[in-house]
């Protein structure tokens, strides 16, 4: 073994503490400053609609690159070798660009009063029902997504401080509460932009450093070719890691996306639809100002640079596998296993990088958790309560939003506490497929397709939620749906079929009402 | 729809089709970074269509 697996030291713990503390302090000051400029809750949600391309671009990078990208991708490639790269998102730049192309039209809905994605749907379809349904759908899918963020933070804390995993989980939950309490979520666009820059810089540095640390690209590939798959927990197999598919045994192995090319192709479409399908991504365009073509290209360049970060984290996992073999799959590393590859590699390279990486994972995970908790709380208050009872006072709504943060922070925490997912990004992909399949069409396409109807959008959300329950590792097995790729394709293309077919057989809004949303070009 | 847009969309579709083919026939690092390169080509074309033919801010 070229390099021993590092252990936590007091020097490392102190450096991580300082890095995370600095991040919290900076977020607080930025959030505090921006909160002063936002006169009310609505102002906080969309600002003054004066955000430029640089800030919007990096904020979009931050909201897209949550714990899966900056952390979980190393776990994927460490565990599955090249076949893990399908979920790394080597093509994710395609999806994030589609989000840029389709999502920019959100500006039009802000001018018409939308402050959240479900509110945009209410305006698009003139339907309160669809606003409430979108709110409920988002809550269900985002709760699953939050689970991964806790695991990312707790793993980093455990690996760098030596604290037991469950203790780290509780500690990270406290940090999330502190982050929210000090207003880290305020001025979202600016704080997110700062986080986007941090994630991109650290991700690139760690990726390049890991490549050098492991002896270079050729050596990594050569060593990887000699390795076989090991199940989390330590059971070895004779299945080689040298191909882009990993033929795991049926039926449980079929739940892995890289098991064959059906699963692989499904992941490509997942990444095509996913960035637009994430409501927290598309919401980034709510506060953007009118921009020029040159600025649009600038924003695109930022997305390309940021969009390559997940690949660099994937490189870290491959490097770690080539150096340490399957050591991290042993019971000693329960429940983190391959997910500990990135943080351990960063420690091996040096304490300063490890501290920066810890702060980055923390930034990605805590900001996503705080942001998603806020979105879910707003889903309850604005999209359900206020939608059904418009006379509810703003003061009560604000208090209700604060109160609702408690269950939305506690539920995913409890989930990780009782059943931590072995491979973080693989777990999060389940939620990503559902968000991609549902919201790409319901939100992204509806902004551009006049013929879409509220019935088509509603049927898509209901279909997508039912299919989400039929995930191979949920209830799909009871119905013979054991193959992840088939499930994902059924969810995404089934949603598309439902959306277009139901829309075409039902009545759209009258032309005069659509004129505001789809002005004729002159 | 203009023929140039149609042609660009066909090239974009080819980019998507190339992804699994590259993994199957080439593999390794070439496929890994090749996917990213294909994604960048696809994305440039998408932004080109948007800014050249469907720009909304005029």
Short summary of the structure?
By secondary structure, chain A is mostly helical. Helices cover 70% and strands 2% of the residues of chain A.
Outline the structure in words.
The complex is a heterodimer of chains A (522) and B (58). In chain A, a hairpin with a 5-residue loop joins strand 1 and strand 2. The model of chain A has no long low-confidence stretch (mean pLDDT 89). In chain A, helix 8 (117-125) packs antiparallel against helix 9 (128-161). Chain A contains 23 helices and 2 strands. Chain A has helices spanning 10-37, 41-46, 53-64, 67-80, 85-88, 92-103, 106-111, 117-125, 128-161, 165-181, 188-213, 217-225, 261-277, 279-282, 293-307, 309-324, 341-349, 351-388, 394-418, 424-445, 454-469, 484-505, 511-517, and strands spanning 228-230, 236-240. By secondary structure, chain A is mostly helical. The N and C termini of chain A lie far apart (68 Å). Chain A has a two-stranded antiparallel ribbon. Chain A is globular. The longest helix of chain A is centred in the C-terminal third of the chain and has 38 residues, at 351-388. Chain B is mostly helical and 58 residues long. The longest helix of chain B is centred in the last third of the chain and has 26 residues, at 28-53. Chain B is elongated, with a radius of gyration of 14 Å.
């Amino acid at each position: 073994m070229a390099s021993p697996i590092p252990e936590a030291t007091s020097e490392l713990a102190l450096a991580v503490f300082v890095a995370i503390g600095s991040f919290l302090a900076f977020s607080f000051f930025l959030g505090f400053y921006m909160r002063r400029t936002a006169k009310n809750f609505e102002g906080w949600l969309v600002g003054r609609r004066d955000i430029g391309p640089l800030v919007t671009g990096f904020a979009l990078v931050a909201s897209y690159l949550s714990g899966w990208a900056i952390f979980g991708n190393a776990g994927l490639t460490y565990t599955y070798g090249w076949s893990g790269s399908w979920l790394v998102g080597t093509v994710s730049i395609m999806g994030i660009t589609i989000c840029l192309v389709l999502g920019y039209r959100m500006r039009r809905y802000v001018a018409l009063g939308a402050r959240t994605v479900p509110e945009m749907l209410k305006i698009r379809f003139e339907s309160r029902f669809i606003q409430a349904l979108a709110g409920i759908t988002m809550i269900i899918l985002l709760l699953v997504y939050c689970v991964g963020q806790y695991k990312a933070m707790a793993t980093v804390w455990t690996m760098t401080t030596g604290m037991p995993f469950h203790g780290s989980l509780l500690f990270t939950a406290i940090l999330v509460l502190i982050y929210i309490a000090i207003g880290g979520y305020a001025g979202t666009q600016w704080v997110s932009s700062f986080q986007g820059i941090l994630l991109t810089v650290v991700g690139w540095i760690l990726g390049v450093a890991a490549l050098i640390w492991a002896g270079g690209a050729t050596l990594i590939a050569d060593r990887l070719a000699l390795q076989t798959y090991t199940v989390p927990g330590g059971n070895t197999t004779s299945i080689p890691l040298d191909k882009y598919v990993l033929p795991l045994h049926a039926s449980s192995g079929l739940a892995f996306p890289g098991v064959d090319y059906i699963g692989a192709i499904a992941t490509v479409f997942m990444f095509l639809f996913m960035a637009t399908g994430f409501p927290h991504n598309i919401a980034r365009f709510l506060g953007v100002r009118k921009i020029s073509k040159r600025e649009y290209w600038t924003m695109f360049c930022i997305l390309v640079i940021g969009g390559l970060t997940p690949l660099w984290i994937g490189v870290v996992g491959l490097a770690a596998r080539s150096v340490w073999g399957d050591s991290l799959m042993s019971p000693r590393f329960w429940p983190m296993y391959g997910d500990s590859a990135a943080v351990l590699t960063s420690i091996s390279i040096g304490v300063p990088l490890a501290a920066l990486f810890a702060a980055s994972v923390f930034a990605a995970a805590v900001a996503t958790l705080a942001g998603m908790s806020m979105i879910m709380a707003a889903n309850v208050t604005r999209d359900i309560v206020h939608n059904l009872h418009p006379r509810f006072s703003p003061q009560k709504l604000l208090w209700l939003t604060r109160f609702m943060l408690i269950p939305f922070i506690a539920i995913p925490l409890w989930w990780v506490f009782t059943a931590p997912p072995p491979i973080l990004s693989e777990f999060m992909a389940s939620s990503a497929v559902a968000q991609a399949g549902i919201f790409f069409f319901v939100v992204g396409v509806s902004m551009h397709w006049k013929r879409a109807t509220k019935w088509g959008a509603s049927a898509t959300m209901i279909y997508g939620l039912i299919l989400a329950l039929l995930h191979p590792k949920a209830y799909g097995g009871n119905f013979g749906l054991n193959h992840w790729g088939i499930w994902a394709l059924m969810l995404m293309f089934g949603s598309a079929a439902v959306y277009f077919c139901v829309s075409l057989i039902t009545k759209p809004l009258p032309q005069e009402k659509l004129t505001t949303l789809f002005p004729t070009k002159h | 729809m203009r023929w140039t847009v149609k042609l660009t969309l066909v090239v974009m579709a080819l980019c998507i089709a190339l992804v699994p083919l590259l993994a199957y026939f080439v593999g390794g690092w070439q496929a890994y970074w090749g996917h990213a390169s294909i994604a960048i080509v696809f994305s440039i074309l998408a932004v080109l269509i948007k800014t050249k033919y469907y720009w909304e801010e005029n």
